[in-house]
Amino acid sequence: MVTTRNTRADVVEAAGRLFARRGYHGTSMRDLGKELGLLGSSLYSHVESKQDLLVEVVEEGARLFGASAERALALGGTPRERLQALIAGHVDVVLDNLDVARTFLNEARMLDAGHRRRILEARDRYERVFRRVLAEGAGEGSFRPGLDPKTTTIFILSVLNAIERWYDPEGRLDRAALVDELSAFALAAVGSG
Amino acid sequence: MVTTRNTRADVVEAAGRLFARRGYHGTSMRDLGKELGLLGSSLYSHVESKQDLLVEVVEEGARLFGASAERALALGGTPRERLQALIAGHVDVVLDNLDVARTFLNEARMLDAGHRRRILEARDRYERVFRRVLAEGAGEGSFRPGLDPKTTTIFILSVLNAIERWYDPEGRLDRAALVDELSAFALAAVGSG
DNA sequence: CCTACCGATCGGTAGG
DNA sequence: CCTACCGATCGGTAGG
């Protein structure tokens, strides 16, 4: 077994792992060093500060969700189809980047004010993509009467963002079944079941 | 203004406030002392350890949700009506005990193994109440065909548990409107819209 | 509830 | 990436 030097990307990845598991404040630089087989102080040749690591992980999360929304919209289709594509894309981001997604969802509030603002803006942009799709479907009359696109978007994203809290890849639902259940639930909720 | 000595309940309440805002590991005993106008070391005449405070806050959350489920079931009614009562009760618990609910939802994983297990069990019991109601409605054929009570319960609880993340009591939705939106969404999702 | 303190750990730096 | 270290802060205790 060859032991190679860690890259900056290795450090960021391990940081995501620990931040996801124990939280930002529950992870020390010495913990992170141990995870990588080096001393806490050695991390400072890769990174400027602990906060810096949180910024990198959380911003990667923001990029992943943003890119997923763009891909889903590029497929076109009816509001119903676009909503399904957004859901499937969201699931892929979470399941393929579980630690990053968890850190993005749970630890972003530990960022300093400036970085937190940028992340909140990215989150708002992502939310607006869902909202536009729902508003369009509601405008067409494809969804149930009285549906409020803003509130409904928050509810659907609540379900999607909670996946990291309970989903077990080894459990009875595989990825396709999860997406099916989510789609059936969300489409029924918007009245396009 | 009369400055009275703090009670143990005051300490637990302030702990909930800080744990909710900055997280368990982001809160020091000195922070908590400052919040109450005393020194960190003085807290130890009220409490045995920092972990002890987390246990108290999280177990209060578990009690509140458990009691809410009992009250909702005691009302009886159709599965549809019981689901609505469960939703309204959940909203009351969250909005009337925001700090406790946040700590219960986000910081319980910081508990030591023994206490964490007890909380997971309480959470499972609460979830089973929802599941039984959904299973009964599905058995009666009142809900959409193909509805999986287990998965649907998780989805509905995901929406309810996310309220603390976005709801603003000063915003456009008052409590009754929030409950209405949640009910409309959940009932449509189960196919009883 | 305070004074006075404990050993351990924290994020981080200088210099190699 | 390590050695050797810094001042600050951590949870917690003894004694009043």
Assembly classification? homodimer
Strand content of chain A: under 5%
CATH class of the largest domain in chain A: Mainly Alpha
Name of the CATH homologous superfamily of the largest domain in chain A? Tetracycline Repressor, domain 2
Using only C-alpha atoms, the radius of gyration of chain A works out to 19 Å
Q: Write down the overall geometry of chain A.
A: elongated
Structure write-up:
The structure is a homodimer of 193-residue chains. Chain A has two domains: 8-45, Arc Repressor Mutant, subunit A; 50-189, Tetracycline Repressor, domain 2 (Orthogonal Bundle), CATH 1.10.357. With 193 residues, chain A is an all-alpha fold. Chain A is elongated and about 60 Å long. Chain A contains nine helices and no strands. In chain A, 70% of the residues lie in helices and 0% in strands. In chain A, helix 1 (8-22) crosses helix 3, helix 3 packs antiparallel against helix 4 and helix 3 (50-74) packs parallel to helix 6 (113-140). The interface between A and B is medium-sized, with 31 and 31 residues. The first copy, chain A, binds a DNA duplex (16 and 16 nucleotides) through loops.
